[in-house]
Amino acid sequence: LACFVGYYVVWRVTPALHSPLMAVTNAVSSVIIVGALIAAGPAGFGFSKIMGFLAVILASVNIFGGFLVTQRMLSMFKKKGK
């Protein structure tokens, strides 16, 4: 459900607000990483540890993917060397 809501929010927002929206999205992902590390950190092995580990992996993919997309977008605006 969150994926569909996020998709429609991003596509319905005006272009001027895309940068602040993406900044908030990155902040939310960093909070998810911290929460996942707390869940995966305690000793023992259980359901919460597995879910915390999966959350760390998925949020990391989201954050690093965002950096890669941003890098590609910024490289499109660089002037070509002559």
Protein traits:
82 residues, mainly alpha, elongated
Task: State the end-to-end distance.
Answer: 48 Å
Shape: elongated
Question: What about the largest sheet?
Answer: none
Helicity range:
over 70%
Task: Give the helices and strands as they follow along the chain.
Answer: HHH
Low-pLDDT residue intervals, each spanning 5 or more residues: none
Characterization of this structure:
- The chain has helices at residues 2-12, 18-40, 47-76.
- With 82 residues, it is an all-alpha fold.
- It has one domain.
- Helix 2 runs antiparallel to helix 3.
- The radius of gyration is 17 Å and the shape is elongated.
- One of its GO terms (biological process) is NADPH regeneration.
- Keywords: Cell inner membrane, Cell membrane, Membrane, NAD, NADP, Plasmid, Translocase, Transmembrane, Transmembrane helix.
- It catalyses: NAD(+) + NADPH + H(+)(in) = NADH + NADP(+) + H(+)(out).
- Residues 1-79 form the NAD(P) transhydrogenase alpha subunit C-terminal domain.
Helix/strand layout:
Blueprint: H1 2-12, H2 18-40, H3 47-76
Helix pairs in contact: 2-3
Keywords: Cell inner membrane, Cell membrane, Membrane, NAD, NADP, Plasmid, Translocase, Transmembrane, Transmembrane helix
Subcellular location: Cell inner membrane
EC number: 7.1.1.1
